[in-house]
Amino acid sequence: MVVMGHGGAGKSTLCCSFNALIPKFFRGKYQGRVLVNGQEVARRQVAEMSRLVGLVLQDFEAQLFSTNVELEMAFGPENHCLLRPEIERRIQRYLTFVGLEKLRHREPASLSGGQKQRLAIGSVLVLEPKILVMDEPTTDLDPFGREEVLSVAKSIREEGRTLLIVDHEPETAVTADQIWLIRDGQIVSQGPPSEILVDGPTMESCGIKTLPMVELFHSMNWPGNPLTVERAIELIQRHNLTQRCERKVATVSTGHIKGSPILKAEGLRYIYPTYHVEALRGLDLFIREGEFIAILGQNGSGKTTLAKHFNGLLKPTSGRMLVQNKPTAEYSHRELSRWVGYVFQNPDHQIFARTVAEEVGFGLKMQGEILKTVEKRVAEVLEVVGLQGYEQKVPFVLTKGERQRVAVASVLAAQPQVIILDEPTTGLDYRHQRDMMEMLKRLNRYGHTIIIITHSMWVAAEYANRTIVMKDGFILSDGPTRTVFAEENQLAEASLSPPSLVRLSNWLGTEALTVQDMVQELKK
Amino acid sequence: MNIFLYLDKNTWIHRLDPRTKMIGVLIVFSICLCFNHPLYMAAISLGIMLVAISAKSLQNFWRLRFILILLIVFSTLMWPFFAKGPTPLWSMGSFQVSQESLLYGIAMGLRLATFVGTGLIFLSTTRNEELTNGLIRMGCPYPIAFALSTALRLVPTFAGAGATIIQAQVSRGLDLESGNIFSRVGKFIPQAVPLFIYAIRHTNLLAMALESKGFSPESKRTLYYEPRMRRIDFIVLLLLMVILILLLYIRLALHLGAIIPSRL
Asked: For residue A337, which residues of chain B lie inside 8 Å, CB to CB?
């Protein structure tokens, strides 16, 4: 079963009410009742419920706390007072199940994101609950980790356990038995995927992206409602809806950005001093003013390391990183923050002030601007990010999407030419993702160079005009987004695959990267 | 950076029961208190170094070399101010340094360094969970042992978050490289507040996860790593006790090994 809904719709609250965390852990007004296996949840303790309902929280980092994988797995059964041979047997069984038996003695902190999430799932599964509830298990993962977790989810289903997943991606829901759509704390519709996923307007109203194939077929007035690309291709062939053609090798792309060069990497190498890991292995890169760039790649491919060189947080081990033709090593952090702004993935890592205005004005104050300029600039950037009138609000109580905007605004206030954003859409629902990206597009139009690090393929496809794919500290491919996404084999080398619309576009031989473009192109 | 000192090796000290190691550390501490003559103290320090070698923990000694050296140097320089001895070595006005006080200072330095070294061997060879199990086995209530081990576990997590927070603030212009002591204190707030909030969120989530896995502090539970006292554990403890008694005999009955007998 898949539960979907906008941010703040009550999905996590629902999850917590299945295992008595609500009302036992979180107090509040509680009415009605939840029955699990015929038992009223509110009358039970959380520890009792753990025999029936397993809950995997979204933040897997916070759930792992043991010093090795084996002990992490043993924690639940220890609480249930199982005998040691039984614990041993279960650890063996479920470590194999989640595919971590080889990492049995490793420290959880040293695992990759996908492995950590699998361990978190394993450590709950080992209690053999009848029902497994997973709250956004793939949100914080790279595409590869996402695949790993979804394949574990598939085997759980095959075992005959009930599986309830909260997710933002409609693609996850395609194979579900049942989908619940939640809006503002209420279930607005429920049913099998073939009914729910084709209802575009209701999905949008719940803050979920419509499946591009459904949207395309709807806009083209083609018969059928394919949920996947494969199905769409089948329908197109069967009804002979349109003709495939050979995609002309792009001629328009490279020349159209004529901005002056702003960032330049020459033979950039970086080795992390504590781990002696070579994160960047000799990169050459050239970025012009006004570009909108997406950097793609799995975790550990060097994306973030590269981006941190752009604003001098890291200094190259060898080679050079030039900003405005001057090596970053010759700038102070303060000077550099005027040229290159860096928005970290988690806005909570930087928000500290009592009011939004203070938060956003912080960088300016650090640069010694007078109060009047600060106030004026703060008002300006809040308008740009769509938070006008928020000056006196307390930043901590805003929604995740709003906090993200505050973080962007606080970087923007220093008016840097280049803005780097690490995972700007992660953890936001579809509507807020759109808002965020539209805002970046606007900034790009005002002349800012935008660089985003992202795992979201459709975000890259729809917004970036240039895409860089990284793997193992090298640049695997770099070029206009359409060209990069046309090379499906090369993307597969980095364990990435283009979003479904682009895959169809590749198959049809069209230029389109968005549904609207494809509709226009096909109608021509 | 890894703050954990545990080294995943398989030596005889790693295999000892955590209780043996905890009691052993206490006995070694007492042994260190037996003498204040630098030569006798040096012999004990050397013994601890040999244990460290056989526990393959020297890499941690190397990591903390500055602290160890600093302890010895400071102690040697500071003690002559406080301890008085009969043989004057050097004097200036009413202040004088005696030969005994200097030697005493060296011995105290070695003693402190040996304390730290012993603790270091313990931490290099004992897992967090073993420590908890050992404490429980020795009668410490589970909630307290669990709180202790969780606190230890969270240190590196928070250190990691702290590093990210500093980077985030530096990249929007927080200048940590200059300023006097007062402006530096002011710059502490943008780092501390997000860390506090992070810590609160993180521990809240952790509590949820623990409860969801059936944890309740009062009830009984199995221990997957069951520490067991084996013959070697008893031999080690017995040996340490014998050494302690022997050394006490040397100091108290034979009056050897003290440079200033009136002091510990």
From this structure: 170-173
